[in-house]
TrEMBL record:
Designated name of the protein: ABM domain-containing protein
UniProt cross-references to InterPro entries, sorted A to Z: ABM_dom (IPR007138), AI-2_Isomerase_LsrG (IPR050744), Dimeric_a/b-barrel (IPR011008)
Pfam families to which the protein is assigned, alphabetical: ABM (PF03992)
GO cellular component: a single term: cytosol
GO molecular function terms listed in the Swiss-Prot or TrEMBL record: oxidoreductase activity
Listed PANTHER family: ABM DOMAIN-CONTAINING PROTEIN (PTHR33336:SF3), QUINOL MONOOXYGENASE YGIN-RELATED (PTHR33336)
Record domain ABM: where: 23-112
Length: 115
């Protein structure tokens, strides 16, 4: 998710065989001071169009109950190509342009289902 942010590292692609299998991604975003409402609004606007993308199995937005400026996006994609497509969509690029200065911290974890 957020690989285009200039102050964030590029999100590396999954390696070899993992690139062609479904995976879950957990994106953690922490708003800068005073930017929580903006980040929440833009994340909320991103949910429905992301859910409608081919290759998206689910896309759910959560807020940390103890740290309201921290948001988690739980995503499940058919494969790496589906996430790459998502990152290039107009709605995701709009999100990036609106939140570039609002994000204090970003992290993306990719998880492969075991059981």
């Amino acid at each position: 998710m957020i690989s285009a942010l200039s102050h964030q590292p590029v999100i590396p692609a999954l390696k070899d065989t993992a690139m062609s299998q479904a995976f879950t991604a957990i994106a953690t975003l922490v708003a800068k001071s005073g930017q929580q409402a903006l980040l929440q609004r833009e994340l909320t606007a991103l949910v429905q169009p992301s859910r409608e993308e081919a290759g998206c199995q689910y896309y759910n937005l959560h807020q940390d109950a103890e740290a309201p400026g921290t948001f988690y996006v739980l995503e499940r994609w058919d494969d790496e190509a589906a996430l790459e497509f998502h990152n290039a969509t107009a709605h995701f690029q709009h999100f990036l342009s609106q939140t570039r200065e609002a994000i204090e911290h970003f992290e993306l974890k990719r998880l492969l289902l075991i059981l």
